[in-house]
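Justification of computing resources. Each target in the renewal requires a structure prediction run like the one illustrated here; the chain below, 363 residues long, is used simply to show the kind of job we budget for.
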Amino acid sequence: MLKFRSRLIETLRADGYRVVVLAHRDATFERLRPLCDELIDVKMVLRQISPLGDLRTLAAYWRHLRRLDPFAVLSFSIKPNIYGSLVCRWLRLPVVNNVTGLGAIELRSGRVASTVRWLYRRSFSHSHRVFFQNPQDMQAMLAQAIVGPDQARLLPGSGVDTARFTPAVRAPGDRIRFCMIARLLRDKGVVEFAEAAGKLRSRHPDLQFDLWGILDAADPRCVTRAEVAAWEERGWLGFHGEARDAAQAFEFADVVVLPSFYPEGTPRTLLEAGSMALPCITTDMPGCRDAVVHEVTGFLCPPRDAGALAEAMMRAVEIGPEGRRAMGERARARILTEFDEDIVLAAYRDQLSEIAAEVGLSP
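Resulting structure tokens:
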């Protein structure tokens, strides 16, 4: 909410709406309070299905939404989309969903995936609109009749604040710096980034590799502190911890890398890097491939393949500073026309206007 929805909250409040945020309490929770009119902690069991915990989340949504009786509900991510939308259906509240990527659940099969698809179908059946961040996710849910053609719309990811993420003036250096910013999940390709860096550093010690992210020992999907320390000890990369401001981290980068095989929406990191006129290297995966045009604004490579990633990085080296500059300029131009955050804000304003018209209110 803090990273991806702050401008949406600010815009809706400026339009005269009272904005209430329901979110699971984490380290950033209190930083949301000044942005909204009311902030409510909805406890949620993260990263797994928990029948008892999810029932409590469902009950919390029921209790709060019945009290608030909102004009409309805007919902993001898997559990809020499912459980929040079920409550909206029961209370007859208009809901606009945003599928920010199918997430780790898409990597599973069998009963769990079938259950989640069934829940999605029940939850989205009465949604006013369902936004998707890449066409592959939208087509998958249309094909499975989870949403109807009249409900589904495509958004350019979460958009990017192009006025904030602007090209930085970089002094020419003797090292080419590759930067990765991500949650340090294995599915994000962190191990592949480290291994590719190791392959290249052994032959090209002048290259530099910077890794930014949060080490979460409680999350089994995350790489361990010992692994990161070993990569640093071998001289493969430098680890810098959490990147509170991606723009500052990108100021010193020449190329941004995200070798994710996680089912993304459209990765905000790649959009922000492109907005700063940086070429990007990512995987040929849904969402990732939508953010980068191969050999135009960056390079695509196969997922889970450190060797192919190293080759793509080497191509970024071989095209030279002028080649990288041209790629970055094309990336910036594409972000301005296709992924500006104002496009996303306008889409939400349009949906609220439609809902207002349907109930005979002025938005």
